[in-house]
Amino acid sequence: MQARRGWAPDHGITTPLPLGQKLRGTSTLVDKRTGETVLQWIKSSEDAEEQAEAMQAAIAAMGEKIPREKPRRAPAVCNTDLLNCYVLTDYHLGMLAWGEETGADWDLGIAEDMLVDWFAAAMAQSPAAEVGVFAQLGDFLHWDGMDAVTPTSKHLLDADTRFQKLVRVAIRAIRRVIGLLLEKHQRVHVLMAEGNHDMASSIWLREWLRAIYENEPRVHVDVSPDPYYCVEHGKTALFFHHGHKKRPAQIDTVFAAKFREVFGRTEHAYAHMGHLHHIDVKETNLMLVEQHRTLAAPDAHASRGGWLSGRDAQVITYSRRFGEVGRVRVSAKMLEAA
């Protein structure tokens, strides 16, 4: 462990690395006459495991100061057989799009208003189900830190604002949505899935939301660090994954293996994914696998590359006994025309 942090005197490595870095290798220039080290280059890289641990500790500390939501009065009437699953994916909050270039404008203000308007419209058209699932399937935030780049490839992104403002709006918008869900449903299940644009931000979103709603017994926030998620509703199993690790063709066996007991107990299985921004539905021997559209406008990269699709999101209603029994589709155009 000490060598990994840059301290191995027996091997001539005596330069401790800062927190969040790990030793990748060294290059040493040695004087052949004296055998003494003339120069040494220390090669380091980001230590993802240590950074994650530091982030978790910071989240836990900050979460202690977040004002807790007080319990709200539950709706008096609901259908105990039903669950409404509100599927939202690839929302890219904080992305900037210029309508003349991409076909539609998108910025932080437009995105926050559309998010709340979509949930209000979707809930008005969906049945009074006992359970509401806020299935946010990843890439809710367009970028993941102080630099507006993709976390893995470091591709430059079109960003609307400062990251701190983006964080503030994200938390405010989600709390507004959960408040609406609590007015309609007896129980609310919140899922903030990991995406390829917001790997770290999905962590603090899950942890902060759990802290905020720890005094509200009707809200359950899924804080699983694994990017595969499951909700069991009677004989119906719902599975969720962003799509950045596994594509639709291979996802059914992953879910059946990871959630073996749930899969074995249930009769109806459905998998929901995002990532590619267009509709793709496949029925396998194990489950129905559905890839969803996004409500967000295309950015310049997508528009110039010709990767275009419709813009909408769906509420899918499931029965404890019969699986899917209905759905409502609300498009961006419907919200803009309202």
Task: Give the key terms.
338 residues, 9 helices, Metallo-depent_PP-like
Shape: globular
* Major β-sheet strand ordering: 8-7-6-5-14-15
Task: Assign the CATH superfamily of the largest domain.
Answer: Metallo-dependent phosphatases
Instruction: Please state roughly what percent of the residues sit in beta strands, choosing from under 5%, 5-15%, 15-25%, 25-35%, 35-45% or over 45%.
Output: 25-35%
Order of helices and strands: EEEEHEHHEHEHEEEHHEEEHEEH
Which percent range fits the helix content? 25-40%
Largest sheet: 6 strands, mixed
Mean pLDDT across the residues is 89
DSSP strand tally: 15
Q: How many domain modules?
A: 2
The helix-and-strand class reads alpha/beta
What would CATH call the class of the largest domain? Alpha Beta
| CATH T-level fold name of the largest domain | Purple Acid Phosphatase, chain A, domain 2
Which spans have pLDDT < 50 for at least 5 consecutive residues? none
> With helices defined by DSSP (H or I, 4 residues minimum), what is the helix count?
9
What is the CATH architecture descriptor of the largest domain? Answer: 4-Layer Sandwich
Radius of gyration: 23 Å
Cα-to-Cα separation, first versus last residue: 60 Å
Protein name: Winged helix-turn-helix domain-containing protein
Organism: Luteibacter yeojuensis
